[in-house]
Amino acid sequence: MGNCLSSQTADDQSLLNDSDGVSLPGDPPPPYQDREPVPVYHPTPSQTRLATQLTEEEQVRIAQRLGLIQHLPKGRYDPGSGPPEKKPKECVICMLDFVGGDPLRFLPCMHVYHMECIDTWLMRSFTCPSCMEPVDAALLSSYETSRTDGVTDR
């Protein structure tokens, strides 16, 4: 009787150790840590809330902000183009030097940042971190100008 239990325990142990994480039908779902995290947004610079806790008005405001950010010009850092003395050398948000091929985003005030850094910044505050110029006013005016340039009165 003792031998039967010890061999089953060894088999159970090997099954646990060799598990590849695939669950069978009827098994409980994987732990919550494996799930995608709920995004965190900043309705105002001093507030932080989960996406599931935002009011409808805040959701609309954040969606508008995301849309405006996506309209900002982007590119890749090319250390070989342009005069080196006028070329930005680092992102003032993360303080890391630009490396060839880094994705960049350009603000209307002509300041340049890593795309990930400035996108996160703009979700909190819609001003340039260098000159504190409001990004949305310049962006909205350029958007309105481009929309009315192609319109003619009849």
Automatic annotation (TrEMBL):
<dbReference type="InterPro" id="IPR042981">
    <property type="entry name" value="RNF11_RING-H2"/>
</dbReference>
<feature type="compositionally biased region" description="Polar residues">
    <location>
        <begin position="1"/>
        <end position="17"/>
    </location>
</feature>
<protein>
    <recommendedName>
        <fullName>RING-type domain-containing protein</fullName>
    </recommendedName>
</protein>
<keyword id="KW-0479">Metal-binding</keyword>
<dbReference type="Pfam" id="PF13639">
    <property type="entry name" value="zf-RING_2"/>
</dbReference>
<feature type="region of interest" description="Disordered">
    <location>
        <begin position="1"/>
        <end position="50"/>
    </location>
</feature>
<dbReference type="InterPro" id="IPR001841">
    <property type="entry name" value="Znf_RING"/>
</dbReference>
<keyword id="KW-0862">Zinc</keyword>
<dbReference type="InterPro" id="IPR052804">
    <property type="entry name" value="UEC_component"/>
</dbReference>
<dbReference type="InterPro" id="IPR013083">
    <property type="entry name" value="Znf_RING/FYVE/PHD"/>
</dbReference>
<feature type="domain" description="RING-type">
    <location>
        <begin position="91"/>
        <end position="131"/>
    </location>
</feature>
<keyword id="KW-0863">Zinc-finger</keyword>
